[in-house]
């Protein structure tokens, strides 16, 4: 178990039990006490930032992370099933900008991030670089994600708002 720093942003994971438990980054994060894992959608805290690839707004340093960050660890079919529930909840839907995966399954593929990579990217963008490094340190390929995306993550973390993120993203795509 890793000691949480008082500046750490609370991390929440909705886990639908649809992935290979041996490859599941969310389960491994929970094992180390790095994320609050739940199998019930209702346990996602109101006003938390939901990392949603379909969101209209990109995550940026201007977002308020006091209520935490939430990631959905499930198939697209499950997302379609739970999405009506998610829309009723008061969540801050935000999309991550262009980043490249470093996980062994999707290495080098843009936007194909694991749950831990999504959390690390969000933490980095929101200014919690040490927490991003801490969660990635539990994966032997974790440092590769931060190295591979260092330049865009640095630029995104310096952005003013969502529009600025989109401008920066366009330089990488």
Automatic annotation (TrEMBL):
16S/18S rRNA aminocarboxypropyltransferase Tsr3 C-terminal domain boundaries: 49-173
Enzyme class, first EC level, given as a word: transferase
One GO term (biological process): enzyme-directed rRNA pseudouridine synthesis
All copies of domain RNase L inhibitor RLI-like possible metal-binding, residue ranges: 10-35
Compartments it resides in: Cytoplasm
GO CC, alphabetical: cytoplasm
The entry's keywords: Cytoplasm, Ribosome biogenesis, rRNA processing, S-adenosyl-L-methionine, Transferase
Source organism, top-level taxon: Archaea
UniProt binding sites for S-adenosyl-L-methionine: 25, 72, 96, 115
Catalysed reactions, semicolon-separated: an N(1)-methylpseudouridine in rRNA + S-adenosyl-L-methionine = N(1)-methyl-N(3)-[(3S)-3-amino-3-carboxypropyl]pseudouridine in rRNA + S-methyl-5'-thioadenosine + H(+)
GO molecular function terms attached to this record: rRNA small subunit aminocarboxypropyltransferase activity; S-adenosyl-L-methionine binding
Purpose of the protein: Aminocarboxypropyltransferase that catalyzes the aminocarboxypropyl transfer on pseudouridine corresponding to position 914 in M.jannaschii 16S rRNA. It constitutes the last step in biosynthesis of the hypermodified N1-methyl-N3-(3-amino-3-carboxypropyl) pseudouridine (m1acp3-Psi).
The protein's name: 16S rRNA aminocarboxypropyltransferase
Organismal lineage: Archaea, Methanobacteriati, Methanobacteriota, Stenosarchaea group, Methanomicrobia
């Amino acid at each position: 178990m890793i000691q949480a720093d008082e500046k750490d942003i609370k991390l929440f994971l909705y886990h639908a039990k649809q992935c290979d438990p041996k490859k599941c980054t969310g389960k491994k994060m929970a094992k180390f006490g790095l994320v609050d894992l739940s199998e019930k959608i209702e346990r996602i805290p109101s006003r938390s930032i939901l990392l949603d690839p379909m969101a209209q707004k990109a995550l940026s340093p201007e977002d308020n992370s006091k209520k935490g960050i939430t990631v959905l660890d499930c198939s697209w079919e499950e997302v379609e099933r739970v999405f009506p529930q998610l829309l009723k909840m008061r969540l801050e839907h935000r999309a991550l900008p262009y980043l490249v995966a470093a996980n062994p399954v999707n290495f080098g593929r843009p936007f194909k991030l694991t749950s831990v990579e999504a959390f690390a990217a969000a933490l980095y963008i929101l200014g919690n670089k040490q927490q991003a490094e801490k969660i990635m340190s539990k994966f032997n390929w974790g440092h590769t994600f931060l190295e591979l995306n260092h330049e865009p993550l640095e630029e995104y973390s310096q952005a003013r708002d969502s529009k600025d993120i989109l401008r920066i993203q366009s330089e990488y795509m």
